[in-house]
Design a protein that fits this description.
Shape: globular
Strand order of the largest sheet: 3-2-1-4-5-7-6
Number of helices: 8
Largest sheet: 7 strands, mixed
């Protein structure tokens, strides 16, 4: 899907992925010392907003202008101390420019694009990390096609933890976690990363967390 496709999809309904943060984002990042974070393919901003509420200074980047307009509206309803920590940027996860200082956290949640684009985005994400920074990648796993519910049905945009590790093998990062995780879903099937799906069934996600050395 190109940016116009996503603009059309976001314009068709309110909060495509819901307002609550992704459960793996919460599990992996609760209690971490806040710093500067980048949320790539941030969509309507649910994960970026949660991070800001935890004290992070967050830049949310997405190539859908409609999604970012919605994120701005959500931000306007937040307490000032949270809203002031959020910056929204229109851009492509495959070609963004990171500040020289880098980020303490880069989150890539449910960026479901073909392998060449995913690799480009993840390598840029890795290169955007500051010393000691964390890269958290979450997405619909390839096995979700046969073992899970919801998500894209095109295998070309799905991936595995092993794919992520291979994409980043030369980036000097230390794998902390690389696994398939099972997410109970309810409601209508979705496909960019909401907890959407058929009531009470399970989706299979790929989750990879890596760290850059402090030196």
């Amino acid at each position: 899907m190109d940016s116009q496709d996503w603009d059309d999809r976001y314009a068709a309904s309110e909060l495509v992925w819901g307002a609550a943060p992704n459960q793996w984002v919460v599990r992996e990042l609760t209690g971490r010392t806040p710093g500067h974070a980048l949320d790539l393919a941030a969509g309507e901003g649910r994960n970026a907003i949660w991070l800001a509420a935890q004290g992070w200074e967050v830049t949310g980047l997405d190539f859908s202008a409609v999604a970012l307009e919605r994120a701005e509206r959500l931000t306007a309803d937040l307490p000032d101390e949270v809203a002031d920590r959020l910056t929204w940027r229109h851009g492509d996860a495959r070609a963004f420019e990171a500040p020289a200082a880098g980020y303490d956290l880069v989150l890539v949640a449910y960026l479901q694009i073909p392998a060449s684009g995913r690799r480009a985005a993840l390598r840029r994400a890795a290169d955007a990390l500051a010393p000691g920074g964390t890269l958290l990648v979450i997405g619909h796993d390839l096995s979700n096609l046969t073992e899970g519910v919801g998500g894209p049905q095109d295998p070309a945009v799905l991936f595995t933890p092993e794919d992520v590790l291979a994409d980043l093998a030369d980036r000097g990062l230390r794998p902390v976690r690389a696994e398939r995780v099972h997410r109970t879903v309810g409601g209508e099937p979705g496909h960019k990363g909401g907890e959407a799906g058929a009531g009470g069934r399970v989706a299979v996600d790929a989750l990879v967390r890596l760290e850059r050395g402090a030196g």
